[in-house]
Amino acid sequence: QVQLMESGGGLVQPGGSLRLSCVASTNIFRIADMAWYRQAPGNQREYIAGLTKGGSTSYSDSVKGRFTISRDNAKNTLYLQMNSLRPEDTAVYYCKATGGLPNTWGQGTQVTVSS
Questions:
Q1: Can you tell me whether residue 73 is helix, strand or coil?
Q2: What is the full per-residue pLDDT of the chain (115 aa) written as tens digits?
Q3: Alpha carbons 17 and 113: distance in angstroms, whole number
Q4: 3-class secondary-structure state, position 75
Q5: Dihedrals φ, ψ of 6, to 5°?
Q6: Burial of 76 (0-12, 13-18, 19+ CB in 10 A)
Q7: What CA–CA distance (Å, rounded) separates 23 from 52?
Q8: CA distance 46 to 52
């Protein structure tokens, strides 16, 4: 069973940057589409970025132009580079794998944007 583990969250000031990582226990990027979601307190979990196994990317309007999704196949790691962070980006961030395996979520990493 594949496991996903996020890291890289923390406290950052508005305008700052963070890079989140999601390490997969096995090499799934050849068979799975990957995505980042986030969930703020009181809100539903929302999709923010996706990277297909073929290499296509997509972003929600709320992060487009500020966030970049990428992966390192050799390290079995998915990344989310987050720039120009805003207080409304505060949330728990999750990675997800779909397709070719059962939907799999990581445990999440907290990102707090505050001065």
A1: helix
A2: 899 999 999 999 999 999 999 999 999 998 999 999 999 999 999 999 999 999 999 999 999 999 999 999 999 999 999 999 999 999 999 999 998 788 999 999 999 999 9
A3: 10
A4: helix
A5: -85, 155
A6: middle
A7: 16
A8: 18
pLDDT digits (tens, 9 = 90+) for 48-80: 999 999 999 999 999 999 999 999 999 999 999
**Residues in CB range of 55: below 8 A, 6 or more apart:** none
Q: Count H helices and E strands in the chain, helices first.
A: 0, 11
Q: How far is it, in rounded angstroms, from Cα 87 to Cα 9?
A: 14
Per-residue tokens: 2: 């594949």
Closest CA to 47 of 38, 56, 58, 57: 38
Q: What contacts 71, CB < 8 A, 6 or more positions away?
A: 29, 34, 51, 77, 78, 79
